[in-house]
Amino acid sequence: MLSQGFITKNPSRPAGYFNVRKQVKNLQADYEQEWMNMISNKQADEYYMQQAIEMARKAPDFPFGAVIVRRTTGEIIAKGVNRSSENPIFHGEIDAINSCAAVNPSIDWSEFDLYTTAEPCPMCQSAIEWAGISTIYYGTSIPYLQSLGWWQIGIRAEEVSRRTPFRQSTVIAGILELECNALFEAAGTGSTRLK
Ligand SMILES: [Zn+2]
User: Fold this and answer.
1) What is the C-alpha separation between 175 and 184, in angstroms, rounded?
2) Distance of CA 42 from the midpoint of ligand 1 (Å)
3) What is the rounded CA–CA span in Å between residue 22 and residue 17?
4) From 93, 158, 159, 177, the catalytic residue
5) pTM for the complete prediction?
6) Cα(122) to centroid of ligand 1, in Å?
7) I need a surface site. Which of 36, 62, 94, 171 has the fewest CB within 10 A?
8) What is the DSSP letter of 171?
């Protein structure tokens, strides 16, 4: 009961109380802003992944879709889909990079992020590094694709990124992962699934 007595007998605030209140309030505002940013970033990431999913739906047997986004404006710069039936190296990410390069031959690629329904294979992640794209977001992981029987080279995108000393790319997993997984679960039932 000592503290209660202290409060009732000493209603005046100690020196610095209001400063502390103000600091706490500012901290709360910062946290709220950070939280709002997190929510809006999450919504943006899911929006762009949804666009990659829409691209993937154009190739239901090989639902690898990708979009390249200009980070500062949110503009979708290029889209790609797996076209390996035309050329074995035309994976979704390569298709998007080719489309982007065709329109923007001398652009600063570090302005761009890439969203792809599946984790980039080592070829695509290497192409992403050579291009200089900053952040890569994917839905389905390589191990999950392998567990479904898809052909995949067992080198993770994060490893390719880490082993590329001349870039500082970031690989972020698990954007709309269940939706992306569903694409690959539904695609084909053959024993050989090629990306
Ligand atoms: Zn690839």
Assistant:
1) 15
2) 25
3) 9
4) 93
5) 0.82
6) 7
7) 36
8) E
